[in-house]
Write a structure and sequence with these properties.
By secondary structure, the chain is of the alpha/beta class. Helices cover about 30% and strands about 20% of the residues. It has ten helices and 16 strands. Strands 5-10-2-1-13-15-16-14 form an eight-stranded mixed sheet, sandwiched between helices. It has a two-stranded antiparallel ribbon with strand order 3-4. A hairpin with a 5-residue loop joins strand 11 and strand 12 (about 210-215). Helix 4 (about 95-105) packs across helix 5 and helix 7 (about 215-230) runs parallel beside helix 9. The longest helix has 24 residues, at about 120-140. The protein is globular and about 50 Å long.
């Protein structure tokens, strides 16, 4: 039986991020082959600057259900590892959860971008996220070597949540077993990172009240990025970014500050709201940058991590001097990922 650090033909020996694993006939070309025609991550801008730093990636949207994009995403995450970064993946699962609820003839309903979660729905959420979506993603990553280890926010008290309402037109709406992360215990995730692994986290959290909560994946990724002291947060979604004047224009705002985004949040469409709220929370709590990128584009993750002027919308902390990009209004709605 093989364990961590065991070398076998066709697998990657154990190595910390930034260390080159011993080569076999299979592993010698893994880093460059993984990205196909895309430049190896180690050769992209800022690769050396980011070596050894933690990057939290929220995986969601169409890339989760398109087999080709799913494979490409896994390749890109492994590329980040080969470039010496410490990637952590938090995944959603909205389409898969909705499909299972339909099969079971249970209601699918959202309020302010958050899934209304009854106890019956929570059972389905837990089953699909940890038993299906996480397993598929871990398998895709491990097709490239013994990289990924899956865990839930319930495991080792990684995420603790309290019940949260949704706010619709200024009023509080009960949405059931939906949680707000109030504490993150990073020991299990850090142990995996130190062991050279890629943690894959399902956004299900424990409650001190004994309940189990469905946590929006965007906000779970944000909370984990803050707790880990991540350098950046990258959120994959199904739009190009935050639009400057939707629906009158498809121009994407490439960069805005936390303060500018804060002023825009009340006017954002429900599907985009938790994504941008997660970005805002992250940069205000110490994450250097948060970027929303179009996961429908192959290899968008590499550009979202490395490119200084990459795709999508980048949110940065408020600068000392004032700086104001173009006005931004609401973006198109999209379904929540959990």
């Amino acid at each position: 039986m093989s364990g961590p650090g065991t070398t076998r033909t066709g697998t990657l020996p154990h190595a910390r991020p930034g260390e080159a694993p011993a080569e076999t006939a299979t592993t010698a070309t893994t880093a460059t082959a993984a990205a196909g025609t895309v430049t190896a991550a180690a050769d992209l801008p800022w690769a050396e600057e980011l070596r050894g730093r933690t990057v939290v990636v929220k995986f969601g949207g169409n890339a989760m259900v398109d087999p080709a994009l799913h494979r490409t995403f896994a390749q890109d995450v492994v590329e980040l590892w080969h470039a010496g970064l410490r990637p952590v993946v938090v995944h959603g699962g909205g389409p898969q959860i909705s499909a299972m609820l339909d099969r079971l003839d249970l209601e699918v309903r959202f309020e302010a971008g958050l899934r209304v979660t009854t106890p019956e729905t929570m059972d389905v959420v837990r089953m699909v996220l940890t038993g299906q979506v996480q397993r598929e993603l871990v398998g895709a990553l491990n097709a490239h070597g013994p990289f990924a280890v899956g865990l839930s926010g319930e495991d080792a008290h990684t995420m603790t949540a309290v019940r949260r309402p949704a706010w619709v037109d200024g009023r509080s709406v009960d949405i059931g077993l939906v949680g707000e992360v109030v504490a993150v215990e990073t020991a299990a995730v850090r142990a995996l990172l130190e062991a050279g692994r890629i943690p894959v986290v399902s956004p299900v959290a424990r409650g001190e009240d004994g309940e189990v909560y469905n946590v929006n994946a965007d906000l779970a990724a944000s909370a984990l990025a803050v707790a880990l002291g991540a350098d950046r947060l990258v959120v994959l979604t199904d739009v190009e970014g935050l639009y400057a004047d939707w629906p009158h224009s498809t121009e994407v705002v490439s960069r805005l500050t936390a303060g500018e985004l804060d002023a825009l949040l009340p006017g954002l469409a429900s599907g985009m709201l938790p994504k941008m709220e997660g970005c805002l929370r992250a940069v205000r709590a110490g994450v250097r940058a948060a970027r929303v990128v179009d996961g429908r584009v192959p290899h968008a993750l590499l550009g979202g991590v490395f490119a200084a002027d990459g795709p999508g919308t980048t949110v940065v902390p408020d600068p000392e001097p004032d700086a104001s990009p173009a006005p931004v209004s609401a973006s198109p709605s999209e379904e929540d990922d959990a």
